[in-house]
Every structure is written in structure tokens, then in C-alpha cells.
TrEMBL record:
Originating species: Strongyloides ratti (Parasitic roundworm)
Tyrosine specific protein phosphatases domain residues: 239-309
UniProt KW keywords: Receptor
Protein name: Protein-tyrosine phosphatase, receptor/non-receptor type domain and Protein-tyrosine/Dual specificity phosphatase domain and Protein-tyrosine phosphatase, catalytic domain-containing protein
Lineage: Eukaryota, Metazoa, Ecdysozoa, Nematoda, Chromadorea
GO terms assigned for molecular function: protein tyrosine phosphatase activity
Length: 444
């Protein structure tokens, strides 16, 4: 056991010695591992991927969007029991994001006096008869940070995938539940979380090394944060999420979350499962079948039509990257996909965008301690506890691209407006006029 700790410590130290070097992103995606442990680099995988891409292009973007809305209607008619969710509203980030009883993670509260009850807004994503591969959960609230870490400990999970930022569009999406530097170690009840180091493993993916200690026992946890994925939207890099899956899923089970734990989180889970099934299946697979299966475990998995389309787009990009399909064969689908994406990000009044992004940038700078500094420089900044600490950026292998961050904020805001406008159009408005006044009242 002592040798294992020593070797792990050496491995972490080696990883943190990437001071001035940037980790290169390979042109060809290396998919040797995924959550379910299958190797997709096989002839079966390639043949199934080709069949999937051809079938997807035949169906087309418009029909895939229709398919998604049919799946939405189907889910509303097949809601499962969620009594524990109803009884624990203070532990739920969003009141309309249900947590099903039969697949929820049950905290072992009897053996821990600090756990209020056995509820946490998290679900197993496969049958308990199978080997546990991953758990989907919401971004921790202030009053559920301890429960979140107890779940990590209980599951014996070594990896966490975080697909959101603390602040997005000026709104808080998740609590800062892990320490960002050695001066901010977290202690709650009998739990201590120690910061060991962090660096960029790929562009927009930060890996943080943490030590979790409970009652004298300790484990090393790897925390992966994806910084290029807007709420209810999709990232600009189609293949980077596959690298994230490969990196984070070498140890199982993996705990995955965004803000609600269904949109971005569900997209990653469905993508991973599709990759796994392409390696073994003998029939042409459809993502809708994956989605239906995953929604049996967690409500609302894959939240928007563009996320559903994105799943198809990623696999098309993978086929192109592997050079097993030609650009001509997928050109029409890509053109249609881009047209849908461009409609979602139609321009809005620039003044409002600038106000929103200014709030978001300030909030995230405060949370992350990421300033426009060169590697190795330090500067005093104000942290959440309103005390000034010395933040060192030596452990980063590359700085965050602020220009790209601004674009993501704009796209996120565009997407929210598009969805709001679309919902308004879909609702039938009945206008009634109050005969006793000049006021016109619109009801839905």
C-alpha cells in the first residue's frame, strides 16, 4: 500500500512539472478506453460507424429534430416515481428536474452522523446487475457539498467530470466545491479536501489533483473541468469531448455533472454509450435508442435539440477523422447542422451581451483566480472569503483563451433567447380585452 502511494505521488509530481510546455492535442482521436471499458479501434467499430453515419445522413437534420421532440413527448407520458425528490426540495437545484427513485444514489447515512438523510440528486446510469460505470448528478449546492463528497467516497470513484463553470451568463450554476489552490483546502465536518495541483491536459480541459480525507483515510481524486460547453448548447470542438471521456474514464465509476446534470452531462453519457455499443453491436444503431435507455435511469437526459444533433455530429466528425468516410458523403448533413446552429446564435443587442459577459468574466476570475498573467507570475486577488491570498499559476501548462471565452458567453446568451422565443411561438395566445378598462390581457 505504501509503494502504491509513493508511485502515485511520483506520477502526480511528474504531471505537475509541465510548467512552460503546452499539451498537444492529437489530430487523430485516440479512443483506447471509454466508460464501459470497450476498445473501439476495431474493424467492427469502423463498419458500424460507417453504417451509422450513412443512416444519419439519409435521415437528415430536420427529421432528427422531429425525432427529438417525439422523444420529449414520450418522456412526459412516462414519468417514473420520484417521491424522495419531492421530499427534499432544499437539496435540488432545479424544481423541474426530477430524480427517479429506482435509480437514485442512496447515501449511507446511518453510519455517518453528519449526513442529514439518504437523498442526493444523483442517479446510476446502468443496471445494478452490471458493473457500475458512471453516475450523473447536479452541480452541488452550498448545502449539498458534503453529501457530494460522501457520495464520491461511497462509490469509490476516482474521477469527476465537470461540464459547467461556476458562473455562466452572470448566474451561479454550481458551488465551488473543490479547492483551487493550496491555500484554500476545504474542511467540512470529518471531511478534508486537499489541493495537490492542476494543469491543462487539453485546450479547455483542466485536470485538478485532489486528496480527500475522511476519518484519517485518504484517496486521490482526479477532477476534470471542461471549459468550452455553454449551458443548453454544444461545444465548438466536436472531438475534444471524446478525449475527455478517454482521459477521465480510465478509472470507474465516473461521477459526471454540469448544472442540472441532464443536458451536457446526458450528452457525454449517451456519446460514451454509443461508442461502446458501436464496438460490439451487429446492427445499425440509433442514438434515439440510447437516449430512451438512459432516460430510464435519469429524467431529461439530453436537454435540447442541438445537443441531440451534436451527438450525431460528433460521430460524423470521428468518421471523418478516421478517414473511413468521405467529406462529400456528409457535406449536406454538415451544412444543415451548421444552418440550425447559426439560427440559434442569431445576433442580439450587443449592449446586453456586453453587460452579461462582464458580470460572468468578473465572477469566474474571482472563482478561478485566473488573471491575465504569464506562467509563473503571482498576484494578490480577492477570493470568496474576502481575504487576499497569493495565487500562483505555475502549475498551468497553458493560459485560458479569454477571446474564446467571450464567444462562448455570447453563444450561450443567444441560445437562451432562441429557446425562450421558440417556446412563446409554440404557445397559443388568447387575447382578452377588459371591457372596464383600456388594458389588454394576454393569457396562455
Amino acid at each position: 500500500m505504501e509503494n502504491l502511494k509513493t508511485n502515485l505521488s511520483k506520477k502526480i509530481k511528474r504531471s505537475l512539472k509541465i510548467k512552460g510546455k503546452r499539451t498537444q492535442i492529437p489530430n487523430v482521436i485516440d479512443l483506447k478506453d471509454n466508460i464501459n471499458g470497450n476498445n473501439p479501434l476495431t474493424e467492427t467499430f469502423n463498419n458500424n460507424l460507417i453504417a451509422f453515419v450513412k443512416n444519419t445522413c439519409e435521415i437528415g437534420v430536420v427529421n432528427i429534430i422531429k425525432e427529438f421532440h417525439e422523444l420529449q413527448l414520450y418522456e412526459k407520458k412516462h414519468i417514473k416515481n420520484h417521491k424522495a425528490f419531492d421530499s427534499n426540495s432544499s437539496k435540488c437545484r432545479y424544481k423541474d428536474i426530477l430524480c427517479y427513485d429506482d435509480s437514485r444514489v442512496i447515501l449511507q447515512c446511518k453510519s455517518n452522523r453528519f449526513v442529514e438523510n439518504d437523498f442526493i440528486h444523483a442517479n446510476y446510469m446502468n443496471s445494478k446487475k452490471e458493473n457500475l460505470s458512471c453516475v450523473c448528478t447536479q452541480g452541488p449546492l452550498q448545502n449539498t457539498i458534503y453529501d457530494f463528497w460522501i457520495m464520491i467516497w461511497q462509490l469509490k470513484s476516482r474521477s469527476i467530470i465537470m461540464l459547467c463553470e461556476i458562473f455562466e451568463c452572470g448566474k451561479k450554476k454550481c458551488e465551488q466545491y473543490w479547492p483551487l489552490n493550496s491555500n484554500e483546502n476545504i474542511k467540512i465536518n470529518n471531511l478534508t479536501i486537499v489541493f495537490l495541483g492542476k494543469h491543462f491536459v487539453y485546450k479547455n480541459i483542466v485536470k485538478t489533483y485532489l486528496r480527500i480525507i475522511i476519518d484519517g483515510k485518504e484517496r486521490i481524486i482526479f477532477h476534470y473541468q471542461y471549459l468550452d460547453w455553454p449551458d443548453r448548447g454544444v461545444p465548438s470542438n466536436y472531438l475534444l469531448c471524446l478525449n475527455l471521456i478517454r482521459l477521465a474514464t480510465k478509472t470507474r465509476p465516473v461521477v459526471i455533472h454540469c448544472s442540472a446534470g441532464i443536458g451536457r452531462t446526458g450528452t457525454i453519457v449517451c456519446l460514451d454509450d454509443m461508442i461502446s455499443k458501436l464496438s460490439t453491436s451487429e446492427k445499425c444503431l440509433r442514438i434515439k435508442h440510447i437516449l430512451l435507455e438512459k432516460r430510464e435511469f435519469r429524467y431529461g437526459i439530453v436537454q435540447t435539440e442541438i445537443q441531440y444533433l451534436f451527438l450525431h455530429r460528433v460521430l460524423i466528425s470521428l468518421a471523418l477523422d478516421k478517414k473511413i468516410i468521405s467529406e462529400e458523403e456528409v457535406a449536406q448533413f454538415i451544412q444543415q447542422y451548421d444552418a440550425v446552429l447559426n439560427k440559434i446564435i442569431d445576433p442580439l443587442p450587443i449592449k446586453k451581451i456586453e453587460q452579461e459577459e462582464e458580470v460572468t468574466k468578473k465572477a469566474n476570475i474571482k472563482q478561478h483566480g485566473l488573471l491575465k498573467l504569464k506562467l509563473g507570475e503571482t498576484k494578490k486577488i480577492e477570493n470568496d472569503s474576502l481575504t487576499k491570498t497569493q495565487i500562483s499559476l505555475e502549475t498551468f501548462s497553458k493560459p485560458i483563451d479569454k477571446t474564446q471565452g467571450d464567444e462562448l458567453i455570447r453563444r450561450n446568451e443567444y441560445l437562451k433567447t432562441y429557446i425562450t422565443q421558440k417556446k412563446k411561438k409554440e404557445k397559443k395566445k388568447i387575447v382578452k380585452t377588459d371591457t372596464n378598462s383600456d388594458t389588454t390581457i394576454a393569457t396562455t
